[in-house]
Amino acid sequence: MQWGQIKSLFIICFLVLNVFLAKQLIDREDETLSALPEASKEEELELNISGLGQLDQEVLEAPLLYTNSYNFNEVENIAGELTNQEVVVANATTLFSRMTSPVALSIGDDEAFTAALTQHVYLGGTFEEYRYLEEAGLIVFFQRINYPIFYNTQAVLFVKVNDAGEMTHYMMRALDVVEEDQEENEQTLITEYDAVYRMYHNSNILKTGDEISDVELGYHNLVSLPSGEQLLNPTWQVSVNGTVDYFINAIEGHDYPQYTNFITETLDDFVTLLMPGSSRQYTYYSLDEDREEEDTLLSSIRQPFITTYQQLTEVESE
């Protein structure tokens, strides 16, 4: 055999050996990579979202609530509970009040604040503060039935305060529980952690780098019935980055829409009821003996809230 042929044979053998060794190396790398465990969805959540350490894994139960609008005109001796104020009730379900003398609220002192609210606001003890809009002199409250009722136009209290932090007016609507036997309506809820998990993996609401600020259980209007009743569903309120609130159905896990203009839209609805019209029925309580015209009470309550509405809409439009 000639030397040229032997050399070619060696080259071919070395090429085959190199290909074999390269394949072996690639196969080993693949085996090593496949042996590394993939990050679970829980690990992915924990890597990308902060504030998870505060979330509770406890499984809670809460009832569905069947409610109806509170009828203020059906309350016996309601006038006896409305001291230091003149009151008008529109269409039986919306109460407006003008304080005869401004009431100090001690804003910043939780105990004194709650005491003043309970003493001077009808059903005041059943509401909790949601937001203080200091620039507009307005405090917004949500009604509580076991837990707060989120963003419900039929379960809200607006308190108007002056520059000294004193209450001068308030207006409100409330819900009343129709079915008292709540144990029959008890529902098992998803956990706080599960609510956040679904926000990240199912709804894509949460983004990498977001922080969970707080989680609170409350109620959301699931459906309004033709009779005027509302079915309230347990709901997780999840605060993100200290600025945005999201609402997750605590039974089924889906999210509800956000409410960007709830305060101004509800204010507008309230103020419209203070404009005399054929569709409005007014009932007056604890009127000042010196008041000659009932319409002047409507005007004296309406104007401060119109000013507040204008201030808030100007801020929203900026």
Q: Going by CATH, what is the homologous superfamily of the largest domain?
A: YycH protein, domain 2
CATH class of the largest domain: Alpha Beta
Order of helices and strands: HHEEHEEHEEEEEEEHEEEEHEH
Q: Can you name the CATH architecture of the largest domain?
A: 2-Layer Sandwich
CA radius of gyration is 31 Å
**Tally the helices: what do you get?**
7
Q: The CATH topology of the largest domain is what?
A: TATA-Binding Protein
Task: Characterize the overall form.
Answer: globular
Q: Into how many domains do the coordinates divide?
A: 2
Termini distance?
Answer: 93 Å
Protein name: Two-component signal transduction system YycFG, regulatory protein YycI
Domain Regulatory protein YycH-like: 48-251
